[in-house]
Specification:
By secondary structure, the chain is an alpha/beta fold. The chain has a single domain (3-243), classed as Uracil-DNA Glycosylase, subunit E, CATH 3.40.470. Helices cover 45% and strands 14% of the residues. It contains 9 helices and 6 strands. The protein has helices at residues 3-25, 42-46, 65-70, 74-86, 94-106, 140-157, 171-177, 218-232, 234-243; strands at residues 51-55, 114-118, 161-165, 182-187, 191-196, 199-204. Helix 5 runs parallel beside helix 8 and helix 6 packs across helix 7.
Amino acid sequence: MLKHDVQAVLDSYYAKALALAKPGFSQHLRELSAPFLLSVSQAYLDAPVRVMFIGKETNGWCGKLGAFYERPDGIDIAKARYESQHARGTGNSQFLRQWMRLADRFAGGERTAVCWNNLMKMDWYRPKRGYSRTSIGHSAHLFNFSVAVVQFEIELLRPDLIVFGCGHSYDRALKAVLPDRQRVKVEPKALWHFQSNNIECFRTFHPGARDNHAPRRIKEYYQEIIDTASKAFAERLRRQDFSA
């Protein structure tokens, strides 16, 4: 698949879905963020193991939803913001560091080959909540819109591996996005390994969560995910090494 063709399908879907959803968001244009939209890379499409890394929200990284709807090029601006994130260093961000670790193991270190996504497509600004912009409890409209968009993205992009770094509080959204699941392993509220439509899926804590919220260090869960997925895709990764 070519990036241009896949992105064209995605952009067309975004435009229609956002237009249809706009009336339901009309009372929330100042409190919700612009939508988190994907810019697909050719590196992802060509990767031996297609990895999607799902976090929480973007904490207002692309402005307000009202400003997004006012601009005719809003989708392009949102995609450009997504692309600029790929070019940034990891800094002290644990999320970006784990993103890099996934890229190192499954994509030869090419971070753009790991698709970053979110379960909720907008975050929710509430002054008294400080940094947190968790939006899963905002409204049924946002929940249903987000679930439909993420389902479309997964169906189109066909990831082999999805890592949900969003914690168990997002499980109802996860279950709505992937209703057909076969459990492999569960460490209650900490690590959930399941398969869905031939996709290897793992849910654990957000990388930036505090270790004292978890039974063991959060980095250990990510290492277990990487090790387990590496075994599941060992043959593909070996073929890739031989062709390098």
